[in-house]
Amino acid sequence: MDIQYVAPRTLDEAVRAFAAAAGAGRILAGGTDLLVQMRNGVVAPGTIVDIKKIGELTSIEETKDGGFRVGAAVSGAVLREHAKLSKVWPGVVEATNLIGSTQVQGRATPGGNLCNGSPAGDSVPAMVAAGAIVTIQGPNGRREMPVEKVPKGPGRLNLEPGEIVVSFTLPPRGKGSSDAYLRMIPRTEMDIAVVGCGVSLTMDGGTCTAARVGLGAVAPTVLLVEEAAKALIGSKLDDAALAKAAAACSAACRPIDDKRGTIAYRTKVAGVLLKRTTLIAAERAGGK
Amino acid sequence: MAKLHVSTTINGEPQEFLCDADQSMLDVLRGPLGLTGAKEGCGTGDCGACTITLNGRIVCSCLMLAAEAEGQQIGTIEGMAGEELHPLQQKFLESAALQCGICTPGVLMAAKALLEKNPDPTEHEVRFWLAGNLCRCTGYDKIIRAVMDTAADMRAAR
Amino acid sequence: MTTNTPDTANDNKWIGKRTIRPDGADKVTGRAAYAADTTMPGMIWGKVLRSPHPHARIKSIDTSKAEVHPGVKAVMTAKDIVNFPIEKSVMLGIQDMRWMCRNVMAREKALFAGHPVAAVAATTEKIAAEACKLIVVEYEVLPFVIDVEEAMKPEAPILHDFIRFKDKPSNIAGTLEHRLGDIGEGFAKADIVIERSFRTQPVHQGYIEPHACLVSVSDGKATVWSSSQGQFMVRAMCAYLTGLPQNDIRAIPAEIGGGFGGKTIIYLEPLALILAKKSGRPVKMTMSRAEVFHASGPTSGSYSTVKLGATRDGKLVAAQGTFCLQAGALPGSPIRGAAGCAFAPYDIPNVHSFGYDVVSNRSKVAAYRAPGAPIGAYAVECVMDEVAEALKMDPLDFRLKNAAKQGTKAAHGPVYPRIGFVETIEEARKHAHYTTPLPKAGKGMLYGRGVASGFWFNAGGESSAQVNINEDGTVVVITGHPDIGGSRAATANITAELLGIDYKKVSVLIGDTSVIGFSNLTGGSRVTYASAMVVTQSTERVITQLRERAAKIWKIDPDAVVWENGEARPAGDNAGKFEPLSLGQIAAQASATGGPIGAGQQLNTMGAEGGFATHVCDVEVDPDLGIVRVLRYTAVQDVGRAIHPSYVEGQIQGGAAQGIGWALSEEYIFNKDGKLDNPSFLDYRMPVSSDLPMLDSVILEIPNPKHPQGVRGVGEVPLVPPLAAISNAVYDALGRRFYSLPMSPPKVLATMDMAAE
Question: Which of A92, A111, C38, C658 ranks highest by number of CB atoms within 10 Å?
Answer without folding.
Answer: A92
